[in-house]
Design goal:
heterodimer; A: alpha/beta; Rossmann fold; 3 domains; 14 helices; 8 strands; 11% strand; globular; B: alpha/beta; 4-stranded parallel sheet
Chain lengths: 366, 333
């Protein structure tokens, strides 16, 4: 079967390998472009959020390339994302594309359905259970390796001597992961990739401001949806930390990790959790970033995203109480790169000025 | 003896008899915000976060109108009222879930907010327990709460049965409050010439200001209006099985099931869906209904979006065109 999936950051490298090694043919989704968005906007409901529109566009593009099945995630609400696959199936049927959208609902909600779908995927690919598990394991290792490299790149980029060096090194490193075929090879690729990134020439004398990036998962993870915001900030000389990575749930070393804690942190401001998507997380993460001495926070959200609107209405109070500036960017199909860049530059200027004043005050106090 | 302020919007149209009877039986006074007006809307637009949808902005406006007139604002955190949906996780829209906090942080001069968490999927006596909690916080004894609770539920059942007799909420509220006899049904049905289903969230459908008098316009056009609140839950839930997956939101599910139910009834000639600008759940609901209304018997379907700037002329024009089209369609048949 020809299988495709949504494009989300660099994860396609791992997913492509996964689908191919499950015994299916993979139609690699193209990086969302102007064309993707145009297609998506044309066929999606007007007020659907931007991830929905980008996915519609992506699905139409892969359908054009011959995909028969699209694998995606389901959900239990109350965020709209859990209902995406139903709507996408309706839309694809309406347009007359013969594509089936298969969604994996959270296994905790419907374990049998989850197994059935996995089983079908395995049997149609002709794999033994053991080989199937092995393939999934390697793909997961790949996702982790990719995230490791991306994290590393964001901490190196603000120091790079020649603009663009880190991004080039990152692509080189990702290439290693792309070529790895076993757990051992993935691990070697990770070491090799991290080494390549370490070799980027850096100016350690710089003192970058630190910005935390929070918000809705898709626009945070997909650089093409947020106009390469994190790279843009890095090249402005800003150290960024992102709250969400695909592999974050298994990590302990990142600033923001375990969900339960986040809800607890946000409780004084929003006495209800979860409210869908990453709404509560956005509030909690703002507090965490403030506590960890970050200079500012950028909230990314699609236009009309329900949970993030709730978060946005509460964040001004958090920002006031914890004395941390927050810039909220609502992204839709009209958002232009120049607009994002201008606002980011102004925000970074503000943060630098603030930090300078703060340090001055501290010096006087001494 | 306190004054409990209740904003005349959102869940008011569905649960007001319950709330009012409960608080009045406890010996408190219920203060309602005035009907929606330009002043209330403007105030709401000013106070609420700018990306919010119009119903949330309206709620802020209504709450602001109660400042200084009440000791408390009753703004329950509506999480769920039943265990429903594919995984039993149906809730209200996320904005309802965060509403008390949004309200508290948006305005400083509000009276204290009663933000009791209503999550009835937890169990059968959840409603009883949270009534106890409210009663206690207002200084009432358990015995008083019990009496008020029972009377309030009885009144609410009465109200629901009136709605099921194809009565609109505002009329039903009037009958319940003034205790006037229910008008005979046969008489009132005669002077209609078309039957149309109008679905949408109660706070849009029954608020004549925000929907620019949609129901009155239809009435004038001699159209008999059916809304999703006129069907019993049992009939409605039957529709759940005809969908690949139910949505996650209580009001949205009601709208979808209601619309699908009306699409089965041959005497109903068209479906109108009323939605709010940039409403998150409705972006899905609207397209779903549009597709389903074509698949299920090719029923004419009209979607009307309202926002801060909706004018009566715009709504009227579209309704008139739609009704004309329905009549023309019938003649051709």
């Amino acid at each position: 079967m020809k299988i495709s999936f949504p494009h989300m950051g660099y994860s396609y490298i791992a997913l492509k390998w996964l689908v191919n090694h499950l015994g299916h043919e993979c139609i690699v989704p193209p990086e969302p472009s102007k064309k993707t968005l145009d297609l998506g906007v044309r066929y999606s409901p007007e007020f659907a959020c931007i991830p929905f529109k980008i996915l519609t566009g992506t699905y139409l593009e892969v359908a054009e390339k011959g995909a028969e099945i699209i694998l995606t995630s389901g959900g239990m609400g109350p965020c709209r994302a859990g209902y995406y696959w139903v709507m996408h199936q309706y839309l694809l049927d309406e347009i007359g594309k013969k594509v089936k959208v298969i969604a994996f609902e959270p296994p905790l909600c419907d374990l049998r359905d989850f197994w059935r779908k996995l089983h079908r995927l395995r049997v149609s690919g002709g794999l033994s259970v053991k080989a199937f598990i092995q393939v999934i394991k390697v793909a997961w290792e790949k996702i982790k390796a990719i995230d490791d490299m991306e994290m590393q790149s964001h901490s190196i980029r603000p120091y790079e001597e020649k603009r663009g060096d880190t991004t080039r090194a990152l692509w080189e490193a990702l290439q290693f992961v792309d070529e790895a075929n076993s757990e051992k090879e993935v691990d070697e690729a990770r070491q090799e990739g991290l080494r390549v990134l370490q070799e980027v020439r850096r100016d350690e004398s710089r003192d970058p401001v630190k910005i935390g990036i929070i918000g809705e998962i898709y626009v945070v993870l997909e650089p093409a949806a947020n106009h390469y915001l994190q790279i843009m900030l890095g090249e402005m000389g800003v150290y960024t930390d992102r709250s969400i990575y695909l592999s974050s749930y298994t990590r302990k070393n990142t600033i923001v990790n375990l969900e339960g804690d986040i809800f607890q942190v946000a409780r004084p401001y929003l006495n209800e959790a979860p409210i869908g998507g990453h709404g509560v997380n956005s509030i909690g993460e703002t507090i965490l970033y403030a506590r960890h001495g970050f200079d500012g926070v950028v909230q990314l959200a699609p236009f009309a995203c329900i949970p993030e609107i709730v978060a946005k209405s509460i964040i001004p109070a958090v920002s006031r109480d914890f004395n941390i500036p927050v810039l909220t960017l609502f992204i839709d199909e009209q958002t232009g790169k120049a607009g994002v860049q201008t606002r980011l530059e102004a925000f970074v200027d503000l943060l630098e000025k603030r930090r300078e004043l703060k340090r001055q005050r501290e010096r006087w106090a001494i | 003896m306190s004054k409990i302020g209740i904003p005349r919007t959102l869940a008011y149209f569905i649960y007001f008899p319950l709330w009012k009877t409960f608080f009045e039986e406890l010996g408190h006074e219920v203060v309602l915000s005035p009907a929606t007006s330009k002043a209330i809307l403007d105030r709401g637009v000013k106070e609420a976060v700018n990306d919010a949808c119009i119903p949330i902005k309206l709620y802020h406006g209504h709450a602001a109108a109660l400042a200084g007139k009440a000791d408390y604002i009753f703004c329950p955190r509506l999480v769920s009222v039943r265990s429903h949906g594919d995984f039993g996780t149906e809730t209200f829209c996320p904005k309802f879930l965060g509403l008390p906090d949004m309200l508290r942080l948006a305005m400083d001069d509000l009276p204290e907010i009663i933000d009791i968490r209503v999550d009835l999927k937890q169990g059968k006596d959840e409603l009883w327990q949270l009534s106890q909690k409210i009663g206690k916080s207002l200084g009432n004894s358990g015995e008083e709460v019990k009496r008020a609770f029972n009377r309030a539920r009885k009144r609410q059942r009465q109200y629901n049965s009136l709605l099921c007799q194809e009565m609109l909420p505002l009329e039903a509220l009037r009958i319940i409050e003034k205790k006037i006899p229910v008008p005979r049904k046969e008489k009132s049905n005669n002077n209609y010439d078309l039957q149309v289903a109008v679905v949408g969230y109660p706070y849009l459908l029954y608020d004549a200001y925000i929907n620019a008098g949609l129901l009155a316009i239809l009435e004038k056009e001699k159209v008999k209006v059916y809304t999703q609140d006129m069907i019993s839950d049992r009939k409605m839930n039957r529709q759940a099985k005809t969908l690949p997956k139910s949505t996650f939101w209580y009001f949205s599910n009601r709208v979808i099931y209601g619309a699908l139910h009306f699409m089965q009834r041959p005497e109903i000639e068209g479906v109108i869906h009323l939605t709010a600008f940039a409403c998150g759940p409705d972006s899905m609901v609207d397209r779903l209904l549009e597709i389903e209304s074509r698949r299920r018997g090719n029923r004419p379907y009209l979607s009307i979006a309202v926002d801060e700037h909706t004018g009566e002329a715009g709504v009227r024009t579209r309704i008139e065109a739609f009704v004309d089209m329905l009549r023309y369609r019938r003649e051709r048949k």
